[in-house]
Design goal:
Blueprint lengths: L4 H7 L10 H6 L13 E6 L8 E7 L2 E7 L12 H4 L2 H4 L9 E2 L14 E2 L2 H19 L4 E4 L5 H9 L4 E3 L7 H10 L6 E2 L6 E5 L9 H12 L3 E5 L5 H5 L2 E3 L6 H14 L5 H7 L6 H8 L4 H8 L3 H13 L3 E2 L5 H4 L5 H15 L8 E2 L9 H4 L20 H6 L7 H8 L6 E5 L9 H8 L4 E6 L4 H4 L3 E4 L8 E4 L8 E5 L12 H12 L14 H11 L6 H7 L1 E3 L51 E6 L13 H6 L5 E3 L1 H7 L6 E5 L4 E8 L7 E5 L28 H7 L12 E6 L1
Parallel strand pairs: 6-7, 6-14, 9-10, 9-12, 10-11, 14-15, 15-16, 20-24, 21-23
Antiparallel strand pairs: 1-2, 2-3, 4-5, 4-16, 8-13, 17-18, 18-19, 20-25, 21-24, 22-23, 22-25
Helix pairs in contact: 5-22, 6-22, 7-16, 10-13, 10-14, 10-16, 13-14, 19-20
């Protein structure tokens, strides 16, 4: 992507929240027209669109990005970028970016209300936020604060800990929370590392790995096929990965668990497991009687009746998986870990398959990252003791002990907690880099936020959540900041990439670390001072992190290198789970679970909603490869490639209802309804309606994405914590594809 002043100006319009207008304001940051162009310079950085953070070399001229491409030598992207990463400059230069702190003047809140923004200074904004937080804590206690945010960076986590924040909410229940819990107790901890290129048998349950544009994984599986590996894909719909795989099996939505249980039945019943690994590094021998008795009931014939996959195929695939290794069955984020009420049981079953294959921290399997040890702020500047976190959890997380233990989530129960369980409890909310579109049933979470006395949103675009805020803070983005990014997707040896600012923060954008320090000065100053009494400085802190990690004398020294790696032999682990009673072994049977409200072995439970008379079809959502959830739809390049979403249905289903290509349809669930054009495709089963996630932004301040498409989440029911407890959903999976629906032409 070559971005020049001329073609950039062609892509821009007037930002509704820009003051002054977007074009004129952005021009202030560029050299005057007609000036002699400077030579291009190369800046090493790391992408921030998604979690693998592929290395980037950015070509910059006259202070502007001209081109982004992959960083040679970087193991994550293997020297390449996906479409989202290559279009990252249009995130930076989006004319709709939030540019200044702003304050609401219209007391009425709603997605259809004009907030009546007025520009204020950072000092005014921070003073007001600090005053409101202190007032809330003094009058109602820390439980009345709600932070919808990830804990990173560590300065932000330090601020929340110093304030005793009880109710921190994130999306992990929609992503990988269940796998974090399961891996802690079965293999020793959550890992993102899958050694695909050395696998000989790759078993995929639902994960459309080829189309998700995570190059760290896509490159690996392509190399695996080139090396002769067999790839098997179970998925209701025929995807890019289905086409890539050696074999694809269509499966009824939400029944992957049945197939995984039946595979374990075959492998254990026929003693096909890796005896050397299982005997030496697992607790199979200690609980063999219980394990064999439990899985005896889950025959391939039983699984066929539930899943639609033939028993003979299940039996054959199980035997191949166990005897043609090294084999791997990866579990990655929402595709397996959050889709259904039974997702926790599914990731437990998948973990057992990997243990039986004997490939935990072994070539061709799931392994633990070898990383540089980069210390956090608490290690460099030890804080005073943090105050105890006292108060009620508005999401009810404490009713799920294993979820509470890992200190994540929960999006899917937040609205019910705020509106029904503890109405009026939350008085102050701070949102950072999240939008209501990420929630199941977005209208309900919007109603919940309208009950909050004072709400702050920090983001880089004027999202729907911004529309509900009292104060808005413009956020810097990854191309405007410095950091040291340790590889944790491909990490057989330590490698860390320098994320160097390609641009100074545009307009008055600031980082969340800046906000943490400035609010810390006002509210909890003792936690933000160094031993000599000065305030913590983010640049000095980063220098110290780099030095202590052995990456360079300071960040400038590290950034000049671009990346630092330590080549070393891969030595497999011999100890795994560290929880009391595990004795360092992988655990198939988890004896710690019953006391925490969970089953020691995975058992069959169905998905939450099944097709019925009123809603006869499965409802499925997906994240298109060209977009990053709900954050890139306003990117002019990516918007041009995929501007909206559709109801994707099989031609047989279309014929049944008299639906034609491109005509609008009405899709209903027990939660809500959406209208959008139909797209007919043989890749979708006749009993499924599929809709892409990320569209349907209401905010008209987003000039490209606002008012375009439909919110897929409007059809997805949220939940109460009691629903999860009653269903045995002890990992808190958010059930984002558990909905069923009807469809009719308009």
């Amino acid at each position: 992507m070559a971005l020049t002043r001329r073609n950039w100006l062609k892509t821009t319009g007037t930002g509704l929240l820009a003051a002054p207008a977007a074009l004129g304001a952005f021009e202030d940051y560029f050299q005057a027209a007609g000036a002699a162009p400077a030579e291009m310079t190369r800046v090493t950085t790391a992408c921030g669109i998604c979690s693998p953070s592929c290395g980037i070399q950015a070509w910059v001229q006259d202070g502007r990005i001209r081109f982004l491409e992959g960083l040679p030598g970087d193991v994550s992207g293997d020297g390449h970028l996906c479409g989202k990463g290559a279009a990252g400059a249009m995130q930076l230069y989006d004319p709709d970016r939030l540019k200044y702190p702003m304050k609401r003047t219209n007391p009425r809140k709603g997605l259809d209300e004009d907030p009546g923004w007025v520009r204020i200074s950072w000092a005014e904004a921070l003073d007001e936020i600090a005053f409101r937080m202190k007032q809330t804590v003094d009058n109602y206690g820390a439980e009345a604060l709600l932070f919808v945010t990830l804990p990173a960076p560590d300065l932000w986590a330090r601020f929340m800990n110093a304030m005793g924040v009880v109710n921190r909410i994130d999306h992990r229940d929609e992503c990988f929370q269940t796998d974090t819990i399961i891996q802690k107790y079965t293999t020793g901890g959550k890992t993102w590392c899958n050694d695909f290129e050395n696998s000989k048998y790759i078993l995929l349950f639902g994960w459309d790995i080829v189309a998700k544009a995570k190059l760290a994984y896509a490159n690996g599986i392509v190399k695996a096929r080139s090396n002769g590996a067999k790839v098997v894909h179970f998925s209701p719909n025929y995807t890019a990965t289905s086409r890539f795989a050696n074999e694809w099996f269509t499966i009824k939505p939400g029944t992957d668990l049945a197939v995984a249980l039946a595979m374990i039945h075959v492998i254990i019943g026929e003693n096909l497991y890796n005896k050397e690994f299982v005997d030496n590094y697992t607790n199979f021998g200690k609980y063999e009687t219980e394990i064999r008795a439990h899985f005896a009931q889950y025959t391939p014939e039983w699984a066929e009746q539930i899943s639609g996959v033939k028993a003979a195929d299940i039996r054959r695939i199980a035997r191949e998986f166990a005897t043609n290794g090294p084999a791997i069955a990866p579990a990655h984020k929402k595709s397996l870990c959050a889709n259904y009420m039974n997702s926790t049981q599914l990731v437990h079953a998948i973990s057992i398959l990997n243990i039986l294959a004997g490939t935990i921290d072994r070539p061709g399997g799931r392994y633990f990252p070898r990383r540089h040890s980069i210390p956090g702020v608490d290690a460099i500047y030890p804080p005073p003791p943090y105050p105890p976190k006292k108060g009620r959890r508005v999401d009810g997380r404490d009713k799920l002990p294993l979820v509470h233990e890992v200190d994540q989530g929960i999006f899917s129960t937040l609205a019910d907690g705020m509106l029904n369980k503890y109405p009026g409890m939350i008085k102050f909310a701070f949102w950072n880099a999240y939008t209501i579109l990420g929630f199941p049933n977005p209208p309900k979470i919007a109603e919940a936020m309208k009950t909050v006395d004072f709400m702050v949103v920090m983001d880089f675009l004027p999202t729907d959540t911004v529309t509900l805020a009292d104060i808005v803070l413009p956020s810097a983005m990854y191309l405007e900041g410095n950091d040291a990014v340790a590889r944790d997707y491909i990490a057989k040896y330590p490698q860390t990439v320098a994320r160097k600012a390609v641009s100074a923060p545009i307009f008055e954008a600031k980082s969340i670390a800046y906000v943490a320090i400035e609010l810390g000065k006002r509210l909890c100053p003792d936690y933000f001072k160094t031993p000599d009494g000065s305030w913590i400085n983010p640049s000095t802190l980063l220098d110290e992190k780099v030095k202590r990690a052995g990456l360079g004398e300071n960040f400038a020294d590290f950034a000049a290198k671009g990346l630092v790696e330590k080549q070393q032999p891969f030595t497999p682990r011999t100890t795994f789970v560290s929880v009391p009673g595990a004795e360092g072994k992988c655990q198939i049977y988890v004896p710690q679970f019953p006391a925490k409200g969970a089953d020691p072995l995975p058992k069959w439970i169905p998905k939450r909603d099944l097709p019925n008379e009123n809603y006869p079809y499965y409802y499925m959502t997906f994240i298109p490869a060209i977009h990053r959830r709900n954050t890139t739809e306003n990117n002019s390049i990516l918007h041009e490639i995929m501007p909206t979403n559709h109801a994707i249905i099989n031609p047989a289903l279309a014929k049944k209802h008299g639906i034609v290509e491109g005509r609008k349809v009405l899709v209903r669930s027990r939660t809500g309804q959406i209208e959008l054009p139909a797209h007919l495709s043989e890749t979708v089963p006749p009993d499924v309606v599929m809709v892409a996630h990320g569209f349907g932004h209401v905010s008209r301040a987003m000039s490209l994405a606002g008012g375009v498409g439909a919110r897929d989440g409007d059809l997805i029911p949220d939940a109460s914590i009691d629903d999860f407890v009653a269903a045995g959903n002890y990992g808190g999976a958010s059930c984002i594809m558990d909905a069923v629906c009807s469809i009719e032409p308009l």
